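Bit of a strange request maybe. I'm writing a small parser for structure token strings and I need a real example to test against, not something I typed by hand. Could someone generate the tokens for this chain?
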Amino acid sequence: MLNGKNYLKLNIKINGIPALCSFTFKSENHNLYKTFITQEMLKKGFLATNVVYACVSHKENILKKYFKELDIIFGKIKEFENGKNIHNYLEAKQATQSFARLN
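Reply from user aminoacidic:
Good idea to test on real output. This should exercise your parser:
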């Protein structure tokens, strides 16, 4: 589904089946990147993380837009991998890494 080239430049492990797949950045900054994806995709109208939940109601034009925006974000993540400081681009706290009570 990804038509761009930016995902090819990252060390990513993909798991699952096409309708429910996830990806992990093989980087010590995985959770920061996951947080960044959510932040940036929300700006584009997508609730997204490193898990892709596809269903039959997702039309082709929506999927194309989703993957186009994700590829742009992957390009930015590649810049972080090359030394750009991700902390300068995060607008909120890092996502929690596991499910737990917050109070």
